[in-house]
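Build the 3D complex.
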Amino acid sequence: MLEQLLPQLVNGLTLGVIYALIAVGYTMVYGVIELINFAHGEVYMFGAFLCVTFITAVGMPFYLAIVAAMGCCALIGMFLDLVAYKPLRKAPRLAALITAIGMSIFLQNLAMVIWGSRPLPFVQSAVPAYLNETALSFSGVYLTWLQLFIFAVTTAMMLGLMFIITRTRIGTAMRALAQNKTAAALMGINVNFVIAFTFALGSAMGAVAGILVSVYYNSLYPTMGYVAGVKAFAAAVLGGIGSVPGAMLGGIVLGVAEALGAGYVSSLYRDGVAYAVMIAVIIFRPSGLLGKAVIDKA
Amino acid sequence: MKFGWCKAVLLACVVALMSVPAHAKTVKIACASAFSGPAAAYGDNVKAGVTLKVEEINAAGGVGGAQVEVLWMDSLCDPKESNTVAAKIARDEEIVGVVGHLCSSAHLAALPTYLRAGVPAITPTATNVAISDQNKDRKGLVWSFRDVYRDDFQGKFLARYAKEVLGVAKVAVFYENNDYGIGLKDAFVGEAKRLGLDVVGEEAYVKGTPDFTPQLTKLKASAPDGIFLSGYYNEGALIASQAKKIGLDVLKFGADGFDNMDYIKLAGDASEGTYITTPFLASEAGPEAQKFLADFKARYNRDVDYMSANAYDAAGILLQAIEKAGADRAKIREYLAGMNTPEKGYHGVSGLTYFDEHGDAQKPAFVKVVKNGEMVPAQQLK
Amino acid sequence: MGKIKPLLAVLALGLLAYPLLPFANEYLLHVVILVMIYMVLAMGLNIVPGFCGLLDLGFVGFYGIGAYTAGLLTVHYGVSFWLIVPLAALNGALWGVLLGAPTLRLTGDYFAIVTFGFSELVVLFLTNEIWLTRGPLGLPGIDPVNVNLEFLHPDWFWEFVGEAPYFYLALFMVLAVYFVLRRVEDSRLGRAWFAIREDPLAAASCGVDILTYKVIAFAISAGIGAVGGAFFARWQLFLSPDMFKFWESFLVLCMVVLGGLGNIHGALIGAVIMVCLGEVLREALFVAGLPPEVRFLFYGLIMVLIMRFKPAGFFPAIAATARGNPLLAALAERIEKTYGERRETHS
Amino acid sequence: MKPILKIDGVTKRFGGLMALNDVEFEVRRGEIMGLIGPNGAGKTTMFNCIAGVYSPTEGRVVFEAEPGAPTVTNGFKPERVTALGIARTFQNIRLFSELTVLDNVRIGCHCRSRSNFFGAVLRSRAQRREEAEIIERSMRWLDFVGLGAQALARASALSYGNQRRLEIARALATGPRLIMLDEPAAGMNPQETRMLVDLIHAILAEGVTVVLIEHDMKLVMKICNRLVVLDHGMKIADGSPEEVRGDERVIEAYLGRGAAHA
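Done.
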């Protein structure tokens, strides 16, 4: 049993990093406007499809297509905010949640109409060949360059994001907004611009996640966003929703719990183990792993 | 204003539901399958087959002079939605028969309504064993037929094939946790044990999660020399390529759920050497099938899969029944139930179809293997 | 309010007579029954987010527990429907307490995600414990509802055939739940829930035991969900874990919010809209000549549009007024008499 | 006079922050006691420790609802403290703003009534009687604070001063022996403040002891029998208004640290 442990941990880590990438988009939007953007999973899916379309239809090289897809998804994110959420800023929170669900249904079916419902393989010819070669292999673990690439990209993006949030003007504005929207507006922060920027940033990261996942699994399909989105949402909450490092940690914990659950408990209860771990963590740490405790002041 | 809104919405709903669309003299059949949602890709296969058949018939003058109209009913592979669709079909007296449903659970959910209202249905894809017991009304009449073999037949067949032709000794099973995957797996494992095959591991996966490495890592640890993938090609392709990545490079075989060119497209090299059972083998089919194959490729720019072929035949059987028995539900049922010997069977692209007393088809299974990115006939089981 | 009443009366009369009419449409009845099941579910769910202000994403779990309780008891033991309903309600409520007691102190979205996890665990259990539930193979062969009075007279046995008897049973169920909730809404219990929704700390300092009342809300909500499930099982005659996926929780939540969070009438209208929308689109797309693949495209779009133009739902929750309660009506009169003149001089 | 509430060496720490440091005082039955001190002195924390929102880190809170029956309320939850007979209002008004004025007070009656789910569904005779009683009681308190006419209005529609009074009515409806008012005059105009003084006296006449936190020194000096002064979590003075006014430490606490308050 023990010889499985290392490979399973690697499996879980890869999966977890992917969850983390998607979860960051959730957590950023949540941190700023307290909205669970359920359409985020769909942006992730659009990222993958757009990237493939840019490669096949426009003939862009792989890395350029990634950047272009990121740009398009950033626009989609801002568009989502503009048409769906901005009009509801003053409405009850759940209204925006329902809109998010509606948008998610809409985008998923839009993709189905545009690209068809059958899964597509990623354009392997466009992917640099070395990515699929084994980079490391030791004691039953096989790591491809692609996996290392995913780890590297995720880490780099997390660090970049942390930099933006903590060291830049717009990041400061985002944090201010998360604290108190009214006060931030009074301090001369353009609230709508900052929110749009948050959506754009989160969506671009979602797009990268979508592309990496579809390259890694060599498959993309219109419903891929739903399950990934739900898992990433769980990861974001597990880590403490609103916290970027929390999303990263939550994703990895969830991924590892899933892999170990499948490996050591039962593959039938693979998701069950992940959810059980999540519930247990939240019961014992009611604001997630890295979330700030909410003190209800009198 | 509030009052106006509610009233308008309520009225719109009621009016729209009560309205009966009037059409010119046509024969109407329904095709209930998944056209949106996660199973839409499979539904698309069914739709392609049925469309082709109906267009052919209509081009040739229709059924008894009437043009055939297909009502596409989106039942999402969802039992509840299926039951609603079934009620819609049952209620529209002009619909004389159904091709569908796609998934076994959806078909099972629709059956009580079909039995009560007396609607004949032919499913090209629902392979679950339970359907055989649930498709008779109170008088014992069978209303639901299928031109696809059952999971238990196929599972047993594969176990025998693995033992006798492939010659594996230790097999692992990786199945999708749904009606299809479990039905097939249970039959396979039961027969394998009877034949003395060593089943060294059983793992499950659920649709939707794209990552299968934890289960595969576990299966790898049990060192099988063959792995049976009991599920569909979408996930199967991911499994094949991930198995290759983690170094689990053993013989793979799957059932009809793998019979789609997308499997090779998605899995690439990893699909090489996969054995697949199928009710439909182009080389074994007659000359009329070759025309279908060519037409299909020309129309949809992809190769025929068993779902399309079965759907094409299911529509063909239903339309033949309408032509022979008239556009009447009960008479169609009677005609279909009468197709109970090979002589009275239907010669379609997927071979000869006739029904036993449970409405199940007795069809041979063929085996294909993936070689150089093509599916080619493999050695058949005698 | 006065305007709604006649509309409801006409609607109720129409609905009541329809199944007996010769041109009764079984499909329409089927959809109406489905609407009524969702009405029950939406009213049940409404208690938690609507009355207590807690986002509950796991409601479908209780619905599934109720349905499978009913299905299994029917298939294995042939228990009568009339006995199954209270059993299912109790089982649902029991699970509501078991889940609620440790988790209801969580705040906001953390509670939401825990309930979501719970409903996924329920589905996993239903899927994987094949020995009990037959798992993904589904549970076919559930008997329809029957009325068995054979102990009074050997011929007195009726089995529900077709949609019409189910229609009346569902209608009865909707009315019963509506009646119960309307009474609870305007009671000490309902007020305690509203207090928790508005301000938990202030509620506690009014003497409301927050956790207990949340658990009660959760248990009642779960019990109602389970009753809906029990009816569903004996109506569909087939169960499969697929029926209780996460999406159903969303759907019911959408009904509650679209209708108007915290308003019982809102839950009713929400169920009508969400169920009929899917069916109307089926027909509308056909008439418009559009392929069936775009049905959910419009479904999503319409949801977004409704929320865009009715952000508080069709019936926004409003402060309780004198509607329906004789005590409050009398009070309104008294206030008018005592303060009427003074108020006039004020303004 | 026997004390109704005894604060016995109460200390409250939040992490490293010492919000209350060994505070000791008592409230006597039938008096109006003022709890004063500069901002951040720990007055509201003291209230929260008494009301059960916080549990004191050290020390005891002893409440004697009826003479001769003391209860240590440490670790009690707010609802239990309320049931014992301590009611409170909040510094930043916390009404159930979407509900009616009447409902706010009816919820106040919660701990003095008992009907449950079954009573509500069956509308038993006992339940109906209790409901009628609750309305009577609520209206009595609403009339008491002068809000009877607005009983069926939405709470959020009331003026600021009226919202404060509604909060008092809601607190009174819980049937307290002791009521704690957290800055009841904040944001009121002089006329409203005068009415508040009358109201507080009326509360006292109902047999309810009053403790209040207030920054309006004129008001405090006018109505309180006794004052306790906190500064930096410590009690620095305790006595009649005249005594406290002359206390050096109090003057230092208020004036020494800038005239911002004055």
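The domain at 19-149+289-353 of chain B is CATH 3.40.50.2300 (Rossmann fold).
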